């Protein structure tokens, strides 16, 4: 089965969201939709999500599930907005419980902690198959970038979240709370073991070297050419490269709002008695002092 994959690029955060539909049949899924967020005004809006919504409606698709590859730290999720508009449910990996546990401590939110990922409609485990219409979504647990990261195999297409980047960009960082470079290497190898012609879809691309932005490659290309994990790079070499590189990376621009909102399945924090929702900023708790800054991943 070769599903039809429609990418939507969010320029402000270099994120790709996807609508995936069977070649025939109208039941589609949405993967990793983005809510627009302006840091300076702390405003959210739905221009990017509305593009997806229009496409879904124009194509006469029905969407029962919105899937998150992981709790993103660099963009805010539009899953609740689209779920409401489309009557859909939201699923993420069961590792979200650990992510929520860690960030509940970092943001000191004990009164709000929802145990067992209760903000989400379904928690996905490795090997789960989510069926919707003619689509079968196979869940491959790919931890390392975050502990809740999953990849989704749908027919001949795999959506890898931040487990791999395009071959010339390599891989995502593994230094967020709960991240682990060795685990990320093992997860990448799992994906590289899929059939050669499997189409592989990224969640991000930062267009290294000024090339155009790209979102799609194949398992064969990744295995042969991925600069971090392809062409036989060993585990130890990868782990020391990754850790060294991560030590130089600044925190993502939107980590503070993204994590607080995405750990609540994309819902804003509960409004205070004046009807306004507020975010917290933990001082001297995330990242390191600004040092040499080399990239975005
Ligand atoms: Fe990510």
Task: Give an overview of the whole structure.
- With 297 residues, the protein is of the alpha/beta class.
- It has a single domain (4-262), classed as Metallo-beta-lactamase, Chain A, CATH 3.60.15.
- The protein is built from seven helices and 15 strands.
- The protein has helices at residues 47-58, 79-86, 96-106, 181-192, 219-225, 235-246, 255-262, and strands at residues 4-10, 15-21, 27-31, 34-38, 43-45, 62-67, 76-77, 89-93, 122-124, 129-132, 135-141, 150-154, 157-159, 199-201, 216-218.
- The strands form three sheets. The protein has a six-stranded mixed beta sheet, covered by helices on one side. Strands 10-11-12-13-14-15 form a six-stranded mixed beta sheet. Strands 5-4-7 form a three-stranded antiparallel beta sheet.
- Strand 4 and strand 5 (43-45) form a beta hairpin.
- Helix 4 crosses helix 6.
- The longest helix has 12 residues, at 47-58.
- It is globular and about 55 Å long.
- The structure holds fe (ii) ion (FE2).
How does the major sheet shape up? 6 strands, mixed
* Percent range for β-strand residues: 15-25%
Known CATH architecture = 4-Layer Sandwich
Order of strands in the sheet with most strands: 1-2-3-6-8-9
Shape: globular
Distance between the termini: 32 Å
- Ligands: fe (ii) ion
CATH class, anyone? Alpha Beta
Unreliable runs, pLDDT <50, ≥5 residues? none
């Amino acid at each position: 089965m070769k599903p039809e994959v429609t990418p939507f690029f969010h320029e402000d955060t270099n994120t790709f969201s996807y609508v995936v539909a069977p070649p025939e049949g109208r039941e589609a899924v949405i993967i990793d939709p983005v809510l627009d967020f302006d840091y300076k005004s702390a405003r959210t809006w739905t221009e990017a999500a509305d593009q997806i919504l229009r496409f879904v409606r124009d194509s006469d698709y029905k969407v029962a599930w919105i899937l998150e590859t992981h709790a993103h730290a660099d963009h805010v999720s539009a899953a609740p907005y689209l779920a409401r508009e489309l009557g859909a449910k939201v699923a993420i990996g069961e590792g979200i419980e650990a992510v929520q546990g860690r960030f509940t401590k970092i943001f000191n939110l004990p009164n709000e902690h929802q145990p067992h990922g209760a903000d989400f409609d379904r928690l996905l485990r490795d090997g789960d198959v989510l069926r919707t219409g003619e689509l079968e979504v196979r869940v491959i647990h790919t931890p390392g970038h975050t502990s809740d990261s999953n990849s989704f195999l749908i027919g001949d297409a795999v959506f890898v979240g931040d487990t791999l980047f395009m071959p010339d960009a390599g891989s995502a960082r593994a230094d967020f709370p709960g991240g682990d470079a060795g685990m990320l290497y093992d997860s990448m190898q799992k994906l590289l073991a899929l059939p050669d012609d499997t189409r592989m879809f990224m969640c991000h691309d930062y267009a290294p070297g000024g090339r155009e932005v790209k979102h799609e490659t194949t398992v064969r290309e990744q295995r042969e050419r991925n600069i971090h994990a392809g062409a036989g790079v060993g585990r130890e070499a990868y782990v020391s490269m990754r850790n060294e590189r991560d030590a130089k990376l600044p925190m993502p621009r939107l980590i503070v709002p993204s994590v607080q909102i995405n750990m609540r399945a994309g819902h804003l924090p509960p409004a205070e008695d004046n009807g306004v929702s507020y975010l917290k900023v933990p001082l001297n708790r995330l990242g390191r002092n600004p040092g040499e800054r080399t990239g975005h991943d």
